[in-house]
Amino acid sequence: MTLEDLQQDIRRLDVELVNCLDRRFQLARRLAALKREGGLPPPDLGQAEAFLTELPGWSDGSTPPASLERFWRLLLSDTLALEEEALSDLAEGNLLPPTTRAKRRFPARIRENIHLGPELVWLRLTFSHPPYFQPGQFFQLGLAPNQTDPFLARPFAPVAHFPDGLAFVFTRTGRGTRFLANLPPGTELGLLAPLGNSYRLEGQENTAVLLGGGVGGPSLAPLAAALCSRKVETILFLGARDSRRLPDRGLFPTDLEVHYATDDGSRGFSGHLPAALAAWRQGAGKGRSFRLYACGPLPLLKAVAAFARLEGIDCQVSMEERMACGLGACAGCAVPLGGNYQRVCREGPVFMAGQVEWDKL
Ligand SMILES: Cc1cc2nc3c(=O)[nH]c(=O)nc-3n(C[C@H](O)[C@H](O)[C@H](O)COP(=O)(O)OP(=O)(O)OC[C@H]3O[C@@H](n4cnc5c(N)ncnc54)[C@H](O)[C@@H]3O)c2cc1C
Ligand code: FES
């Protein structure tokens, strides 16, 4: 087989993948509708089997590759589980329509793609049906839905929502994010959402301290809003290399206390975020009980986890790992946790800091 044959095969599989995702969502919606009418038993792998036989190209008797078959089984059983969960929410009086909670592909259009500073970009997307998400969850943003290059979708956390869509703030780091930063308004993109778990909002302490380093800062905005709306006293620490790289204050609710830390001292505390937190603990934060949430680069998470362990404070961290599928199928994003490995995209990205084996990372 030549390289060209292989590339052609990949392109064909990619088209099949997109078709299959569409089929999967249609099927899941049909199942959900049938279940609402009381016509179907709970989902099981038998349904996945039935679905697999319907896959385009595979119904002609050819055998799907084992890894892909496993992948589809995972996808399907996951969608069914989510539909089930959504239906029970509905039964308990949650008014969100079930299909908006299930993982699915959302076509979107770029409304704004604005360069905010040296590296940060504000990306606002519009949707006909904006996806539902909880603070901490992320989206896989397909950069070129009609091409295969860049092939893999990139994970991003939403920072704001509007009646017609959502916004992200991202840093131009590599090929995909530089490509995304140059797409003009009007470009169509595809998102897979919502993915991963979310922050636990409840806790014994009625004060929450949030630490966001670099581009992790803006992604804490939905969490800050959710905590403030629950009347949790929220204190936010934002850190960056310099003041030009700090997130816009306007992203966050007005009723929270904000502290800044910059490496060059151009705004707020001069130094890293963990040092700013430690200084606050010695002063205004002395004797106070609170829980911690952190999002940002690994050294920040490690330092915050060490601080939390020392002080005996509950701490949740949102972790980042290189991701390929973003759906739990490739295990590329696994991190050592509690004597085992957990997938950041599936069991995470939010973990209790005390369970992560930081020295192995
Ligand atoms: C749960 C989660 C939420 C995130 N939210 C944001 C956000 O809101 N804003 C933001 O700027 N960045 C965020 N990131 C990081 C962002 O996904 C990466 O910066 C981006 O994927 C890099 O893509 P690239 O093509 O520019 O880099 P390249 O290095 O060219 O990417 C090559 C491949 O590696 C993957 N990859 C590289 N770096 C990362 C990374 N740090 N995390 C995951 N995959 C990576 C890419 O997806 C791609 O498949 C998040 C990451 C995760 C895991
Ligand atoms: S990115 Fe594939 S399992 Fe997490």
Overview of the molecule:
The chain folds into three domains: 3-101, no CATH class; 104-195, Elongation Factor Tu (Ef-tu), domain 3 (Beta Barrel); 207-360, 3-Layer(aba) Sandwich (Rossmann fold), CATH 3.40.50.80. With 361 residues, the chain is an alpha/beta fold. The protein is globular and about 65 Å long. 32% of the residues lie in helices and 25% in strands. The strands form three sheets. Strands 4-3-7-1-2-6-5 form a seven-stranded antiparallel sheet. It has a seven-stranded mixed sheet with strand order 11-10-9-8-12-13-16, with helices on both faces. The chain has a two-stranded antiparallel sheet with strand order 14-15. Helix 1 packs parallel to helix 3 and helix 2 (45-54) crosses helix 3 (66-91). A hairpin with a 2-residue loop joins strand 14 and strand 15 (340-343).
* Heteromolecules bound: flavin-adenine dinucleotide, FE2/S2 (inorganic) cluster
CATH class of the largest domain: Alpha Beta
Topology pattern, helix = H, strand = E: HHHHEEEEEEHEEHEEEHEHEEEE
> Mind summarizing the main beta sheet?
7 strands, antiparallel
The termini sit apart by 39 Å
What would the principal axes of the Cα set say about the shape? globular
What's the mean pLDDT score?
81
Question: Which topology of the largest domain does CATH recognise?
Answer: Rossmann fold
Quaternary state of the chains = single chain
The assigned structural class equals alpha/beta
Count up the domains: 3
Residue share in β-strands: 25-35%
Q: Would you report the number of β strands?
A: 16
**How are the strands of the biggest sheet laid out side by side?**
4-3-7-1-2-6-5
CATH architecture of the largest domain: 3-Layer(aba) Sandwich
In the CATH hierarchy, what is the superfamily of the largest domain? Nucleotide-binding domain of ferredoxin-NADP reductase (FNR) module
Count, helices: 8
The percentage helix is 25-40%
Radius of gyration: 22 Å
Low-confidence stretches: 40-45, 56-61, 89-101
